[in-house]
Every structure is written in C-alpha cells, then in structure tokens.
Amino acid sequence: MDTQNTPVHIRLWHRDFWFLSIAGLLLSTVVYMWLSRVASMLEPLSGMTSLERGGMVGIYGLGLFLLGPYCHYLIQRYRRNKVCILSVAAMALLAFAFGEIVPRTDGTERLVFGLVIMLWYGAFFGLAQMILSGVLVLDVAESGQRTEANYASAWFRRFAICAGPLLAIVLPVESTMKVRGIVYVAVIVLLLLVKIPFKTPDGNEKLFSSDRFILSQGHWLAFNLLPVAAVLGMSVAMAFNNPIFFEQVAIGFAIALAAEKFVFADADLQSEFISGGFCIIAALLMYVTRSGMPVVEHLAPSLIGIGTGLISSRIQMFFIKLADHCQRGTAQNSFFLSWEFGFAIGIFLTGWLRDYHQLDVIGLIVILVSTIFYKAFTHNWYLKHRNR
Hints:
This protein is mainly alpha-helical. Helices cover about 75% and strands about 0% of the residues.
C-alpha cells in the first residue's frame, strides 16, 4: 500500500485508547519537563564541566536500551499494565532521588550519583514507553486499526516535546516538583483504568530476547532518523528558557499533521522526508545567517516543527511496513528508541558544546547529509525490503 494517508476509524477512539494516548502524552511530557529541570538545576552547580553537565542530562538516552531485551519476558511473565505502572513509579522515585542527592553532593560523588540515577531513569522510561506504545496500544485496538493506533498515539507524544519544556518555563520552580508528581500519579491512574485483555503466557519465555525491542532489519531507517531527532534535541536544549520556541514548534507540528492528511495524502512516498529535510535546512540556515531577528525566532521553530513532524511520522510508518508478521510492536519500539536516542544525543551535544552557532552549523551539516543519504540510498532500499 503506497498511500501516504492513514484512514480514521471512529471505533478506534474508544475510552481505553483515549486513556492510553493521554497517558503516553503525560508520560512524555513529564520526561521532557524533567530534562529541562535537570539542565537548569545543574547550571549553577560549581565544579562541573560542560561535558559532565551534558552527559548527566543526555545519558538517559543510553538507559533506554538497558531493559529493552527483558521487555518480552516481563510482559509475558507478568500483567503488562502492572509492569508499566511499576516502571512509571520507579521513574518518579528516581527523579525525586536526583533532586535530593545531586545538589547536595559535589565532585566525583555528585557525578556518579547523577549519571547512575539518570541512566536508570532512562531505562524505566524506555520500558514504560515500549510497553505503553508497543504493547498496550495494540492490545486495545482491532487488528485492522493498529497502524492508525500507532500513528495517532505517536502524535500525542510528539506534542509532549513542546508541552514539557513549556510547563517547566511557565511554572514556578518551587511548584514543578509537585506538578511532576501529579502527572506521574495521573499516568498510573489512567493505566489502572484501562481494561487490558488477559494474555496467556507462551510458556517458553526467554529472559533475554530481541522481541518487542529492536527490529534488526530497520537499521537504515534508524540511521536516517537519528540525525533528525538529534537536531530537534539540540534545538530544544538551546531553547529551554524560550517559551516562544516551543509555541512555534507546536504550531509547526500541527501544520505537519494537517499536511499529512491534505497535502501528502496521495503524494510520492519520499516527498515527506525530502520536504521535511528542506524545512529543517531552511530553519537552520536562518539561525546561522540571521539569528536574533524577530521573524527568524518565530519562523525557524515552526519550520523545525514541520520538518521533524513530517519526517518522524513517515519513518514511523516505514518501520511498521518493514516489519514481518507479528513484529508491529517491535517496529514501534525500534522507532521510539531511534527517535529518543537521537533526541538525547542532541541534548548531550548542546550541554557539552554550548556554542549555539557551532551547534546550528553541525545540525545543518547532519541534516544535509541525512537528506542526501535518504534520497540516494535509504528510500530505494526500503522499497525493496518492505513487507506491506
């Protein structure tokens, strides 16, 4: 099926799917809100290098992969929604521990505690999101509506990239911890309210498995997605104190979502990636050559939102169509891991390099290379290897 458009089925939007979609939105929102808070928390601490600050925020991206190999075992051995709930609870406890320990320590002790806590925060976030988006969302959708379910729930999480940092900016510092706690509780309550069908264990579960974790044949898609997510991560980290940026990126996401339905519905399959790449290139060229101008501060973030929205949504569909039978959850999780790991790389680079002009130039180069590589190789490779 070469159509760009994803049909809408009213029956998909029942209570349980709404609860899971909102839970995914809230979970991602609190994570991006927390990353913004960590960056601001580390800034005034003395005795830390920029590499240490960047590493402490961005290391959650490595943690995403720690529990992935055990995902299949856990969801077969235990009730999957309860595993997800325990992962969210662990995230809340780790965030609390970070806030209590890291500002009160220094030197090597601070660095070790900060890195370990953030690594495991990423691990439990990865497990929670893989179960939520790659298992639970599929459980509550009929077989013919699962592509739409993946597509829609991903757009909920995409808007969290704007909602999380924006909340961290507009809320008073003293109230952010309370708000984050409320959000964690809300996610857990929503997961408890969802009626998840009981799944009989297979009986031969392996403790370590790539099922529900990494789609081995999706490496070239991941290679093309990583730079796009990294550029967005760099842009977000550079704008942690700029509410206009996140408002404009949200507008860009909304335009991209509408464009997929009305502009690219019957367009060539490669048009979304190429168009998205050009949007991001245009935005970064504005930052490199005309940074500081009011029109640039409003237009460039919108173009970044349009570009990353189009590309990430299209690559997500490619992951799903590349997967073999019964690998839909694995494909969805591979997309999530590729996207979130690239985003974490971008945050790390920003915290480490701290030179906004240099970061914009780096972003411009990697997006150019990624767009050319997609046009020259990845798209044709995908057409030859897809299964749907």
